[in-house]
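Hey,

Quick one before I head out. I ran the complex with iron/sulfur cluster overnight. Inputs first:
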Amino acid sequence: MANPTTLARLHHEIGACTLCVEAGYLTAAAPVLSGYADNRMMLVGQAPGAVEAVRRLPFQGRSGNVLMAWMERAGFASEEQVRRRVYMTSITKCFPGKGTGGGDRRPSRAEVDLCRPHLDRQLALIKPQLLILVGGLAHERFLPGRPLDTLVGRVFDLSGREVSTRARARPLLVPLPHPSGASRWLNAPENRALLDRALRRLRAIVRGLLDGQLAGA
Ligand code: SF4
């Protein structure tokens, strides 16, 4: 378990970060993350949206509702349990603003690089046993250069090797598509079948971690 004081200090430091404002990428910084020192599962998204930036909580609004429904299919009893048991963060931690197409702007490589040390420190402190990777930027960070349909439905170790849900490697990586609905990827029946498979595999891992967490808490 992470040291709660050290984690609180890290959250305070991330919460005060204005690097992207100073570099001219953002007009305002409002870092978003949530989690507890005893979390053994971590979810890494792309970047918070406008609603998340106001509420300062990850995965709110429509995307959050879709994601929470997926998490319940993956074995969590409720949204409350997800938010208590899963450390939730993202590749960049501030709302990047709207893009030209109407959706949220994809953070640039430079912004990702500026924010990377925050995620590195979160990973080093939490030492998650399970990493749920939501959306393209999270996939690129941990499993670069692979099409979505070769990721969703599979489980990987940190080296990028495909493994079974019973592998001893930690953390296990489970990629999911982004729940925003901006992508049409989930419109294809074969891709929805991949999501079903991903959630079944996630369920097998989550069940063991929730049991262990409850027993060991
Ligand atoms: S996105 Fe990351 S690096 Fe940029 S201001 Fe927010 S917390 Fe800091």
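Residues 4-216 form a domain with the Uracil-DNA Glycosylase, subunit E fold (CATH 3.40.470.10).

Talk tomorrow,
K.
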